[in-house]
Amino acid sequence: MTNKSLIALTAAAGLFGTVAAADSYFTYIDNAPQQADAVIELGEVVADSAGTVVIYDYNGGEFGEILGSVEVGAGANTDVEVNVGARPLFDVAAVLYLGEPTTPDMAAAWVEIELMDMGMDGDETGDTTANN
């Protein structure tokens, strides 16, 4: 096998790995902010294989401490909720790991969830951003 063939096979294997990972995602489409409480509602989470959804503090574009997690099975997982114990102080990020959790940059998918907060004028503010 020539070096060019080996490089082409390696590139193809990397491409197929990327395509497989693209089948894991959040279907979180509610663009309204969530009420800030101890349960983060994610709706349906689709995973290529069994894994874990981890909720992190997410402030200023940075992942903070882990607030909670829940295991998910391969395929579609409906009505996924994560109890984080107490009302988060900041917005949160839901991160889907296939297999054991590692670091957010190794996630199969993640979504930022802005939590509803009452502004000084009493209006509710916030929104969500998907990063699948």
Q: Which strand order spans the largest sheet, edge to edge or round the barrel?
A: 5-4-7-8-11
Q: Outline the biggest β-sheet.
A: 5 strands, antiparallel
The end-to-end span amounts to 37 Å
Question: Helical region count?
Answer: 1
Mean pLDDT reading: 78
Stretches with pLDDT under 50, minimum 5 residues: 2-21, 118-129
Element string (H = helix, E = strand): HEEEEEEEEEEE
Sheet-strand content, in percent, reads over 45%
Overall shape: globular
Which class best fits the helix and strand makeup?
A: mainly beta
Assembly type of the shown chains? single chain
DSSP strand count: 11
Look at the structure and give the CATH class: Mainly Beta
Look up the CATH topology.
Answer: Immunoglobulin-like
Range of helix content: 10-25%
- In total, the number of domains comes to 1
CATH architect. name: Sandwich
Radius of gyration: 17 Å
